[in-house]
Specification:
This protein is an all-alpha fold. The protein has eleven helices and no strands. Helix 5 runs antiparallel to helix 8. The longest helix is centred in the N-terminal third of the chain and has 29 residues. It is globular and about 55 Å long. The protein starts with a helix and ends with a helix.
Length: 244
C-alpha cells in the first residue's frame, strides 16, 4: 500500500516544492474574480446562515468537479466545445444579473433575492467554479505534468476560495460598485473563453486580463455605501480628539 502511495506521490523535492508554490500562487491570483462571482451568487439568499451553507456545500461539489476536470484535463482541452459551454454559461450569468438589476431598479420594493432555496444556489456555485476552472486548469497543466501537484494546488485553491468568498459577501454590502465590478469581470472571463474557441485569445492575453481585473476591482472598492460612510464619519467626529 505504501508503495502505491509512493507511485502517486513521488519524492517531494525542491523542484516540486517550487512548482507547488507557483500553482498555489496561480490559484490565488485567478481566484479573486471567481470569489466575487461565487459571493454574489450566495448573496442571492436572504439568510446569512444559508449563504455560508451554500458556499460550503457548493464548493464541496465544486471540488469534486474541479478534481474530475484536472484528471481529464489532457482530454478536455482538446475539445473547444467545453470552452464554448463555459463561456456561454458565464455570459448568461452576467446577462441575468444586469437584466434583473434593471427590473429591481424599476420596482418600488427594492432589490429582490435571486434564489428561494439553498438547493438552487449550490449547483450555480459549483458550475460557476467549474467554468472559471477551465482557464486555470489549462494553465496549470501547461506548468506541470505531475497530476498530484496540480490536484494539491487546486485543493488549496478551493480552501482559499471559500475564505475569499466569505470575505467578499461582507464587502458586497459595504461597497457600492463591487458587485457590478465582479459581474463585469465574469463577463470578461466568458469573453476570453469565447475568444479561445475561435483561436483568437491573443486579442485578450493574460496580462491584459489581469490589468482589466485590477482596474475593475479598484473601481469596485472606490465607493462605500452612504450609510456606512456616514457611520464612519460620525464615529470620527465622536472621538476624543475630535471633541477637543
Amino acid at each position: 500500500m505504501i508503495e502505491n502511495l509512493q507511485d502517486f506521490y513521488p519524492a517531494f523535492g525542491v523542484e516540486s516544492f517550487f512548482l507547488l508554490l507557483i500553482l498555489v500562487a496561480l490559484e490565488a491570483v485567478l481566484s479573486a474574480d471567481n470569489a466575487i462571482a461565487l459571493a454574489s451568487i450566495a448573496q442571492g439568499l436572504a439568510d446569512p446562515k444559508l449563504q455560508r451553507q451554500a458556499l460550503n456545500f457548493g464548493l464541496l461539489a465544486a471540488f469534486v468537479l474541479r478534481m474530475s476536470l484536472i484528471l481529464a484535463a489532457t482530454w478536455v482541452i482538446q475539445f473547444w466545445q467545453f470552452d464554448l459551454i463555459g463561456a456561454l454559461y458565464l455570459l448568461w450569468l452576467v446577462w441575468q444579473y444586469f437584466s434583473g438589476k434593471d427590473e429591481d431598479e424599476e420596482s418600488e420594493g427594492g432589490p429582490k433575492r435571486k434564489f428561494a432555496s439553498l438547493w438552487q444556489v449550490i449547483p450555480a456555485i459549483a458550475m460557476t467554479d467549474l467554468a472559471f476552472s477551465l482557464d486555470s486548469v489549462t494553465t496549470a497543466v501547461a506548468i506541470s505534468d505531475q497530476t498530484w501537484l496540480i490536484i494539491t494546488g487546486g485543493a488549496i485553491g478551493i480552501v482559499a476560495l471559500r475564505f475569499l468568498a466569505g470575505l467578499f459577501i461582507r464587502w458586497l454590502d459595504e461597497y457600492v460598485h463591487l458587485e457590478d465590478a465582479g459581474y463585469i469581470t465574469v463577463g470578461l472571463v466568458g469573453l476570453r473563453l469565447m475568444l479561445r474557441v475561435v483561436d483568437s485569445d491573443d486579442l485578450f492575453p493574460e496580462w491584459a486580463m489581469i490589468a482589466a481585473i485590477a482596474i475593475l476591482f479598484t473601481w469596485g472598492f472606490s465607493k462605500r455605501t452612504p450609510e456606512l460612510a456616514a457611520g464612519d464619519a460620525d464615529e470620527a467626529n465622536n472621538t476624543p480628539d475630535a471633541e477637543n
